What we know:
Bound molecules: zinc ion
Largest sheet: 4 strands, antiparallel
Strand order of the largest sheet: 4-5-6-7
CATH topology: N-terminal domain of TfIIb
Oligomer: single chain
CATH class: Mainly Beta
Amino acid sequence: xxxxxxxxxxxxxxxxxxxxxxxxxxxxxxxxxxxxxxxxxxxxxxxxxxxxxxxxxxxxxxxxxxxxxxxxxxxxxxxxxxxxxxxx
Length: 88
Ligand SMILES: [Zn+2]
Ligand SMILES: [Zn+2]
């Protein structure tokens, strides 16, 4: 599964960042310029700031062998980013 392409939050036409919008029970990424809309892929992750339980997930692979992978959670509601690593 290619996570990176499903989380590229840019409008293919305008090349600007899409904004998350909750519509019903789903989250969409919407372009404020042309109205382009796509369903967002998100995971369950509790935001410590606003209590929202959905976040976009982004995996950041290790760039060096001695580094651990990182997971970034971006809250769909407030945009707060939380980092989680595999490191102990
Ligand atoms: Zn657009
Ligand atoms: Zn939040």
